[in-house]
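Curious: why this fold?
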Amino acid sequence: MSTLPKVAWIGLGIMGSPMSENLVKAGYDVTGYTLERDKLDRLAAAGGTAASSVAEAVRDADVIVTMVPASPQVEAVAYGPDGILENARRGALLIDMSSTTPQTSVDLAAAAKDKGVRVLDAPVSGGEAGAIEAVLSIMVGGDQADFDEAKPLFEALGRTIVRCGPHGSGQTVKAANQLIVAVNIQACAEAVVFLEKSGVDLAAALDVLGGGLAGSTVLARKKDNFLSRDFRPGFRIDLHHKDMGIVTDAARTVGAALPVGAVVAQLVASLRAQGDGGLDHSALLRAVERLSGAQV
């Protein structure tokens, strides 16, 4: 009989499916719920259990993990008579691994405390590949004791796991992460167009750039996307648009100027408005190509 905590996993999308499956591989008893039947079937095939509702999934869980697109979806599954807080047992630990506003996490922790449920905000970075390979970076906000309790579970999902402060801190660091990633992708995209228009061997150029100070995890992860123009979603423009809204709004609240970030946020919004919201965020290359006169 496993001594590991029983886990309820809410949200089985691009990130949630491989992450929940990694917990199954690590020996956890995982019961999942999502809106798509095929995703539930996938979890069951991997050794997990499919639930028919949020309430059913969380009822006997020691740990509840949510991995949904944004604040409205977190609130939809957390609150209300059929939600997590009304159906979780007292003492359960709710870990929200979605990317939301910091205030969403602070409010959720306060509401959960009244129900005897503990909360961590624990958004991740690393994209679909990092989720599959269990090498995600996990930035956590919440109490130290709850973080310590959750650490073994996090270690089945990621490689860099850091408590960043009280409730909301994980989401604040994730917002900063998304700012850096978006600006980095934009710079890479501009470099790709510049190199190609200059007649340089693009693959060779990206190899040598990757080995110098210009090298980054973004360049390493997205190089093949740039070379092949393969923009199948690992992390969709739609979601990065949401995240850029979070970071620009949070920066305004604390009085931090984001001059470059604000420009890139507009470029992401423009790409989405042109119908590319469902593509991977490396599709920022398409926006640069359009601005440079290419028909894409």
